[in-house]
Amino acid sequence: MHVNNTSTEKESLTKRKSILGIRLFFIYLICYAGFVLIGVFQYELLAFQVLGGLNLALAYGIGLIIFAVILGVVYNYYCTKYEDEAETEQSDEVEEGGAI
After folding, report:
1. Is 55 helix (H, G, I), strand (E, B) or coil?
2. 4, 32, 42, 82: which has the fewest Cβ within 10 Å?
3. Taking a C-beta distance cutoff of 8 angstroms, is the pair 3, 91 a contact?
C-alpha cells in the first residue's frame, strides 16, 4: 500500500537525496578532472600502454564511464533505501495513531 508523505517528510527526503547526489557528483568531478589535467599538462602519459595494449587515455575514459554507471547504481540504491525508510516510519506512525 502506498502511503502519502507529508510535505515536511518529502522535503527531508529530497534534501537527503540531493546531498547524496551532490557528493557523488563531486567524487566523479575529481576523477574526471584528473583525466582532463593529464590531458592538458602531461598528454604524453595518455599514450602509455596500461592494460592489454590499451593506452591510458582509452583505459581512463572507459574507467570513467564504468565509474559513472557504478555511481548511478549507488545513488539509486541509497535513494530507494531512503524512500523505504521514510515509508516505514510513516506507516509506523499511522499504526500508532490508529491504536489510540
Report:
1. strand
2. 4
3. yes
Dist. CA 86–CA 64, nearest whole Å: 33
CA distance 77 to 97: 30
Nearest alpha-carbon partner for 1 in 81, 78, 94: 94
The residue type at 22: I
Q: Which positions ≥6 away from 83 have C-beta within 8 Å?
A: 13
Spatial contact of 40 and 79, defined as CB atoms under 8 Å apart = no
Please give the grid coordinates belonging to residue 82.
Answer: 531512503
DSSP-based three-state secondary structure for 1: coil
Query: Over the stretch 24-64, which tens digit does the pLDDT of each residue have?
Result: 999 999 999 999 999 999 999 999 999 889 999 999 999 99
Task: Provide the pLDDT for residue 71.
Answer: 98
